[in-house]
């Protein structure tokens, strides 16, 4: 797994994903706080800004799906299996590498959101979130992004190309899930968005406990990993 992770973090794609995670997290944090009248910022808005690193999860799943699918399309997985014939192990190591890469990207987004939140509110003289608020959201975001990395990598391996899983992910997360979440309470609570909001403590709505959101996302990751492993094992050419 270490070899796979080192290969991921040393390519430009990882650095671009990190730049996007930092930019999105920073922009979202500033949108919650604003740049004027910071002394009037409520603690609820301050905590929301602190949760802005969770947007990194969207970057992570798209990055992982595109990278994993592109690797298979270019024959990278097939070349790796020349030296290692166990396809199950090869898929597992890649998904673990994407999980670690996702955790790193999530940590970067969390750090950016925390720096902006505490610096802006500190200079503005507003009430600061507690250390407990920070640690809860940081841990939740890192775990969330790790799971999104595994899910994205599994979808990319299963699809064997970059574009279809990326399009499907964006369609589900940005359009279909929000649509059905507005129509169905179970979808709103237990869909990917609701589970993510619970785990990262990034919503003021009625969502499940953080541990329940984490287990739900873990179940999604397990299903995606099982599908990727099964399809890779059955194909003549991975």
Kindly, what is the distance between the CA atoms of the first and last residues, rounded to a whole number of angstroms? 19 Å
- Contiguous helical run count: 11
Q: What is the H/E string?
A: HHHHHHHHHHH
Total strands: the figure is: 0
Structural class: mainly alpha
Largest sheet: none
- Dominant shape: globular
| Radius of gyration from the alpha-carbon trace, in angstroms | 19 Å
**Percent helix range:** over 70%
In terms of DSSP E residues, the strand content is: under 5%
Q: List the domain count as a whole number.
A: 1
Mean pLDDT: 87
Unreliable spans: none
Summarize the structure.
This protein has 238 residues and is mostly helical. Helix content is 80%, strand content 0%.
Structure description:
By secondary structure, this protein is mainly alpha-helical. The chain has one domain (2-234). The chain contains eleven helices and no strands. It has helices at residues 2-9, 12-33, 43-50, 56-73, 76-83, 87-124, 131-159, 163-181, 185-190, 192-200, 210-234. The longest helix has 38 residues, at 87-124. The radius of gyration is 19 Å and the shape is globular. The two termini are 19 Å apart. The mean pLDDT is 87.
